[in-house]
């Protein structure tokens, strides 16, 4: 689910930060710039992992220092085929929307759900019909899914002549994941727990 | 900004949780010794750190330890599993054959039923079960 990515960047340290140790000042700058942001084709940055290389500072116009830094970030970027858990945030006829505490853009399209699933428009819920039993995929239930694909949308600024029009580009999240639940073991976690008890006995 | 290497390594959930917990306690210690202004970090960092910790505390990573994971890796090594499959096993801590089957690709062809059951036993023996729903471990 998480990876380490190596970046290099030229960072500006304003004079007030000189009171701190350089490593601390750089850590704060890096986190301020990257934490909770999506880097195109890389993933969602969580926080700095470590600094690898720091150059000598070059004095800028305001008396601050410009420093070349190489560092590693913790990045949220699940690989294709990875199995993760999240919670159902909403459901429409098109599919089920899933979120985790920190990432909201996971979508399981209707075609990625179990065969025999149908959408109840009145209750706004997907129901999996299996062995003459109905399994409801209620909102806020914990769901296990497989990552099938990812979409990055570059968040470019809107050109002036398009401003005012609701540009479709800006309604799209910068990073979204499509997923599936079509295999035994996937779907709501509560559907598959029956074997947990004998596991605990063995310990 | 330039990306030198988009993926230098995979991290397990446990490693991420430990890193975030350590970072947070370092900030708190800094706040106690030098005044609260030093502990205040940018809001985007505070938000994502809290949210990721909240999420990981509900996963098996919350109950794992370095020792448990390395023991598990030793015991599971006789099975020819891919690195990604091992990572998922540690992160998801499967508790049934169905769950294990999701993680291990084409398990029925690569492993016999006995081998699969043995893999599941190795998981259960070495990795503690994750927190129950609603249970929070190591808050604060």
Automatic annotation (TrEMBL), chain A:
GO molecular function, one term: DNA-directed RNA polymerase activity
Family to which this protein belongs: Belongs to the eukaryotic RPB7/RPC8 RNA polymerase subunit family.
Gene3D superfamilies noted in UniProt: Nucleic acid-binding proteins (2.40.50.140), RNA polymerase Rpb7-like, N-terminal domain (3.30.1490.120)
Cellular location(s): Nucleus
Pfam family, one: SHS2_Rpb7-N
Protein name per the record: DNA-directed RNA polymerase subunit
Purpose of the protein: DNA-dependent RNA polymerase which catalyzes the transcription of DNA into RNA using the four ribonucleoside triphosphates as substrates.
Keyword terms, alphabetized: DNA-directed RNA polymerase, Nucleus, Transcription
Residue ranges of coiled coil: none
Residue span(s) of domain RNA polymerase III subunit Rpc25: 82-192
Record-annotated RNA polymerase Rpb7-like N-terminal domain positions: 9-60
GO CC, one annotated term: RNA polymerase III complex
Biological processes annotated in GO: transcription initiation at RNA polymerase III promoter
Keyword hit for Nucleus: yes
Primary location recorded for the protein, binned into one broad class: nucleus
UniProtKB/TrEMBL annotation, chain B:
Protein name: DNA-directed RNA polymerase III subunit RPC9
SMART domains from the UniProt entry: RPOL4c
Organism: Tuber magnatum (white Piedmont truffle)
Keyword terms: DNA-directed RNA polymerase, Nucleus, Transcription
InterPro entries, per the entry: HRDC-like_sf, RNA_pol_Rpb4/RPC9_core, Rpb4/RPC9, Rpb4/RPC9_sf, RPC9
One GO location term (cellular component): RNA polymerase III complex
TM segment ranges: none
Annotated localization: Nucleus
GO terms under biological process: transcription initiation at RNA polymerase III promoter
One Pfam assignment: RNA_pol_Rpb4
Highest taxon in the source lineage: Eukaryota
Span of domain RNA polymerase Rpb4/RPC9 core: 1-130
GO molecular function, one term: nucleotide binding
Family: Belongs to the eukaryotic RPC9 RNA polymerase subunit family.
